[in-house]
Amino acid sequence: MLLAAALFGASFPPRRLHALAWIALVPLFLALRGASGPTRAALGALFGVAAAWSVGDWMPRAIEHYYLQPWWVGFAFFLGIALAMASPYFAAFGFAYGRLGRAPGGGARAGQPLLVAAAWVACELARGRLFNGTPFWIGNPWALAGYSQAGVLPAMQIAAFTGVYGVSFCIAACAAGIAEALGSAAERRPGAGGLLAVGALPALAVLGLGAVSLRSDASGAGGEALPVVVVQGNATVGSQWRAEDYGRNLDVYLDETRRALAAAPAATVFWPESALSLFLEDETAYRGAIARALGGVELVAGGPRREGSGDALRYTNAVFVLAPDGEVAGAVEKELLVPFGEYFPLRSVAWLRRRFERVRSFSPGRADAPLATRLGPAAVAICSEALLPEVVNARAGAAAALLVNPSNDAWIPEPRFAEHLLDVATFRAAEQRKPLLRVSTTGPSAIVDERGRVVARTAIGERTHLAGSVTPRAEATVYAKVGDAFALGCAGVVALALARPRARGPA
Fold first, then answer.
1. Contact (Cβ atoms closer than 8 angstroms) between residue 484 and residue 390
2. Position 411 confidence tier, pLDDT thresholds 50, 70, 90
3. Which structural domains are found in the chain, ordered by start?
4. How many Cα atoms are found within 13 Å in the side-chain-facing hemisphere of 321?
5. What is the CB neighbour count within 10 angstroms for residue 109?
């Protein structure tokens, strides 16, 4: 289990050893194939914790930094999340493994690697989507296997049809084919070569078709390339709102924007989530000053929003469009908030509230149509919303011409966290075949084309900007039209396979 988890983690940032992902799960599958049902479930649960640590060992330090807590509190928080949000799904996968595609006597049928891959996808789908939007929960689609191939463009192109789950399917099928071929050879059973071929076939097909698709140069199908500037202020207002922080960092973003516009023109300038530490809609003077500084350029920027009064007063995490005349031309709000990061769900527990309720408290926003900008309609996914492909899909489709991912990465001072979020965001571009702007407080910020290619990016921890262009695209992909039909189909196939009478073999 530990070897599988270590190989799996090495395929993600910071190492990004993409090829390891295709064999990382082999030790896990070898351990599962000869074990009993309860043992398989236990091994799956153990892998869930170990894999979570291999890609998320930054979490204890993040809790220590953001909540000002000792390291052991952060580790306990990590362990609780791993046990609740990862292990149950891997335990279910482990239990199911020995019942998928088994022939009488315990050997594997020819299609077994594909059934295992389908079960892996079903596990990832459940992990990423179950309980989203409930008061105490958000899906945990962190480090799905497919994200290990961010930057491997031929592999990513299947996402326009299947989402990231198509890539995960190929990775799991390949590993299952290797594991079953090795097991069959060791047991001197026939068919090892066939199992290996069946497991490799999806990957070979996807990589081949992806390479052909890239050579077709579909990127020219959009409209005019429009100039943009992305500003990375490398500034934060911390974990709490304070009266003395009102308007803080505005000078940082204005100064960096002036430098950027002095070097290159832009139709629209983008600032990240939480760049504004003021209530923009209430501040005529601030809006006028910002508009004058930008000199006729549109601004898209993140900041808090205040609505209502008295008991009906609510604060939301929003992104605004500021027109050249200083008027707010539009706004969208973050719909799915991060528990403990953007709101505190356990306020009735006094000890926890005193110890942890340091963060800004937001209310869930309204799901909105794409934001109207000079570049065209923009589907906005604020920070962690980019982790949820179904959310981006609902806001994009044919209605949006580009994607925007404003993010505040300052609260977790770990490069591998932000690098993984960038990798995830590139898949949203590939799924929708639309350009994407990732706009981060501390980096990396990036301009991503419609194939998921990072055209330009910043380093982490620098005050800087990106100047480039995007080509808006309004076409809808197959994934935009059918959503997670592929992953749901995998779950259905697995359910049918498990419902069939079991062949004799390991329980």
1. yes
2. confident
3. 2-217+484-499 (no CATH), 223-472 (3.60.110.10)
4. 20
5. 18
